[in-house]
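User: My instructor asked us to take a sequence, write out its structure as C-alpha cells, and then describe one feature of it. I'm not sure where to start. Here is the sequence I was given:
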Amino acid sequence: MSTSSPLVQLCLVLHNHQPIGNFDNVFEAAYQDSYLPFLNLFEQFPAVRISLHTSGCLMQWLQQHHPEYLDRLAALVAQGRIEIVGGAFYEPILTMIPARDRVGQIRSFSRWLEQRLGGKVSGMWIPERVWESALTADLAAAEVQYTILDDYHFRCAGLNDDELYGYYITEDQGRIVRVFPGSERLRYLIPFADPWETIEYCRSIGEAHPGAVLVFGDDGEKFGTWPDTKRHVYEEGWLERFFTLLTENQDWLRTSTLAETIQSTRPRGKIYLPDASYREMTEWALPVAKQHEYEALTHEFESQPGWSSLKRFIRGGFWRNFKVKYPESNEMYSRMMYVSSLVQQAEQEKCPAETLEIARKYLYQGQCNCAYWHGAFGGVYLPHLRNAIFQNLILAEEVIERWSRQRSSWIECVADDYNFDGLQEIRLANESLTTWIAPQQGGQIYELDVRANGHNLLATMQRREEVYHAKVLKGQQQAEGEAASIHDRVVLKRNDLNEFLNYDQRLRKSLVDHFWDENVQLAAVASGRAVERGDFAEGSYRATIRRNPERIQVMLEREGNAWGVPLKLTKGVTLNQRTSELELAYLLEGLPQGSRFHFGIEFNFAGLPEGQGDRYFSTGSERQRRGHLGERLDLQQVRDLQLTDEWLGLQIALEWDRPGGVWTFPIHSVNGSEAGYELVHQSVVVQPHFLVEADREGRWSLRLRLAVACTKPVELLRRGDAPPATVAPSRIG
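Assistant: Let's start with the prediction itself. The C-alpha cells for your sequence are:
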C-alpha cells in the first residue's frame, strides 16, 4: 500500500493479571512464558507501541521477584513506547464493590504506578469489561479519562459495525469518560490466526473507513501462558512475524497508544452503554439450562441468512447473577460488604491512618474478582482462590477488631441480614472463632472462621452441573499440538472424569441434619443419590439467643417430620468467651416407641486438601491415623474424629458423647482449567450418624464438641508492607 493510502491506527492493549491467592510458581511460570519473552521481543521493534495494563496483584509480585522487569518497563515508558494503563489495584469487578472502594482502589493504584514507572496514568482497564453506566461518575472522580470495553457493549447499544472504529464519550451525572470499543474479531485473530490475516483485516477496514481506529484488548497470557501458545507465539515465530509486519506496513498501519489516539483523533460522538460484559461472560452468567438453550439456538440459526444482523439483538445474562448462580460467590460478596462497612465505620470513628491503611490492603485484596465467578475455567471452583479471598477479608476484620476492642477477650452475638436474602443470619464470635448461622436455611453453620490465620473452614463448593460437562461425557479431544482459543479446547486431564459427575442437592455446609434409611450405604451418601427422609436439612428453624457475660448460646428449634412422623428437633450452638471450640447439643422429641431412626449430622471442612501425608484423619486419645483427608472412612462405634493439617497448622477435633458411626468422603468437582478438564478437591465431609431409639419420654439427645487449634497464626501486615501476592494458599491434592 502506498504512502497515500488511508492511515489506520491500531491500539494494542495488553492486560496482564494473576489473582490474589495464586501459587508463586504460577506467577513465575507466567512471567517466564509470557511477560518476559514478550518484552524481550517488543524491545527489538522500536516502531511498535502498546498500552499495557498489569494488575496490582501482579505488579507487586514483580516488584518483589523481578524488579529489573519493572525497570525495563519504566525505560520504555520514558521513551513513549509503552503507555501504562491503570485500574483498580487488586482487579475487582467494579460493579461488585462499593463506590468508595472503587475510587480508593483506582486512585491508590494510579499513584503506585506513577511513582514506580513514571508517566501519567490517565486510562484504566475495566476488569472483565463488566460495565454499568453508574461507573462513569466514579471513574471520573478517580481521575480516569478513558477506558476500553468490548465492541459487544457498543453493538448492544445499537451501533453498526462501521461505527466501531474510534472512541466515544459517555456521561453520568455530568461527568464524562472516553470509551474505546475493543474488537472481538481481533481477539480471535490474535495470536491464533496467521499474522498476515490481522494485517489484511486492518487493511480492509482502512480501505472502507479511512482514518479508522482499531483496538485489540485482551489477556497478555495469550502470548505464552495459554496452552500451546508459547511454542506458537515464540518458538514458531508468530509474534516476531507480527511485529515485523507492523513495522513493514507502518506507512499506513500505525500502532498507537490509547493516550496518543485521543490526542490525534476526535470522538465519534456520545453514547450510553447498557449493562454488559464481553459476550462470552454474558453466556457464562446464565443458568446452566439457559446456557444449553442459548447454545442450541445459536447453532440452529448461525448458518441461516440474516443471522449476522439478528445476533446483535441476542443477549446472555447479567454479571451480578453469578451471585445467584453460585451462592458461594454471594457468601464471599456479602462477607466483603460486611468488612467494607467495618472499615468505613472505623474511619468515621477516627481510626488511626496506619490501621486503616493495613485494613484496606486486606479488604482490597479480598475484592480480587477471579474467585467470584466462573466461565471457561478456574474461578470460584479454585479452592486456593476462595481461601485467599476469605483470608484477606477475615484479616481485615481482625485489624479493625483489635483496634476497636483494645482487649483480647470478648464475645458477642448479633442477628442481621448478612447475606442479603431478606432473612436474618446470626454472627456468633469471640477472639478465636467467628460462626455464621442461617436459622432459616436448615439452621446450618455456613461460615466458620479461624481468626488466628484467617481460614474459613466452610469455604466449600457445591457439586453442580456445568454446561461443559456434556463435553466431558462425550470425551472429545483437541488435536495434539494445535494452538486454539481457550474457548475451543477440549482436553481431558484424566479418563475417568465422567465417574465424578455427581451433583449435590444443597450447599456443603455444617450442622446439616439428615434422616436416612437404616441400611443406606456410604457410597450412596457420598454420590448424592441417597434419599433424604426428613425435612430438616434445609428447613426453617426458630432461633433464640441466650446470653451471659462469658457464654452465648444460639438455640434452634424446628417441628418437622421424618418418614412422615412428626418430630421436634432442637439444637444448640454455644461459644464461650475464652475458648476456640463450639459446644453442640441435639434433642429429638416425639419419637415413637419401638422405632429406630437413622440420623446423621453433616460437617464440611474446606481448605484442607487430600493426598498429602501431613494432612490426615485420626481417632482416639492416641491419635491413631486413619488416612489422608481424601479417604473414604466408614467407622463404627467411635466417639471422635480429628482432622490435622500440619502445613496450615490446623487441627479440628470433633467429639460426641455416645458411640456411633462416622462417614468421611471427599467432595470433588469436575471443572475446566487452562490445560483441560480436571478433578478439583473442594472439601471433606465428616458425618457422624446414629441409630436413634427413643427413651420413655420419646426423646433422644446428643452432645458434640467441635474444637479448633491453630499453631501457625498469620502475622498481620505493618504499615507500608507490600501485600503478598499469595496469602497462605492451600495446595491442591
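For the description part of your assignment, you could build on this observation: Confidence is low (pLDDT under 50) at residues 1-5, 476-487, 724-733. Try explaining in your own words what that tells you about the chain.
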